[in-house]
Amino acid sequence: MLRLRSNFFTGQYPRQLCNLGYLHILDLSHNNFSGTIPTCFNNLTSLVHNVSDIYNDYYLPQTTVTLKGQERVYNTTLMLVKSIDLSSNILEGKIPQEIGGLTLLGTLNLSRNHLTGNIPSIVGNMHGLETLDLSNNRLSGQIPQTLESLTFLSHLNLANNNLVGRIPLGSQLQTFTDSSIYMGNPSLCGFPLPTKCPGDDTLTITNAKRCNEDGNDKMWFYVGMVLGFIVGFWGVCGTLLVKKSWRYAYFRFFYDTKDKVTLAIELKVTRLQRKLCHV
């Protein structure tokens, strides 16, 4: 763990930190680091492969770690925390594609910097990510659809950037109903923002028409069933009630059929009993 937050460090991010393969908590937030985010983050082995066994023989002191905007105290479970916090610096440039290889990373906080470019779609490969904070940067482009594959994501903040287009509505992103996490992106639209996307009104009207059409189809289906029942029932029973001769003929036919069936069954049983007796 390397925790150097809230100091006055300047200069570029030291690339040598990428050689610390067992580093699983990196907190350089609230400093004055400048330059770009290094592309060597995928050398942090503990954020790519599970190497927690190295802590079995070490004493882990009680430590305070900032996650999801809150300070939390860890001791024996500290080895399970995997976090990178570079927030509140002067970092610029694009978010490197290599960061998508940190599949075990739980928290990524790059907020309050001067980052530009698109949010890499490869972030969707970071399946262990629970917190993603990219707010207060200068990121542009659309929110990648791949974010919906982050099934453990519970804290998201993309506010105050230059993101555009419709907010994806994947299975996981539907759980974020707080519009403030998208605020400050004037060209962003869709739920949960109050800004509608182009074509939403047409889509709503089309859906309403489909619902009405479906409702009308169901109504006429049930009306047809009722009418069919009424016509069929009274076509047979009504005729029998009105025509006395037909009623007698119907019941005579019914009784004759019943007698024939009963006789046939009795003959079958008698023949079977005879065969059994001979055996």
TrEMBL record:
Presence of keyword Plastid: no
Source superkingdom: Eukaryota
GO cellular component: membrane
Location in or out of the cell: Membrane
Chief location category: membrane
Record's keyword annotation contains Transmembrane: yes
Keywords annotated in UniProt: Glycoprotein, Leucine-rich repeat, Membrane, Receptor, Repeat, Signal, Transmembrane, Transmembrane helix
Xref: InterPro entries: Leu-rich_rpt, Leu-rich_rpt_4, LRR_dom_sf, RLP23-like
Pfam short name (any one): LRR_1
Protein name: Uncharacterized protein
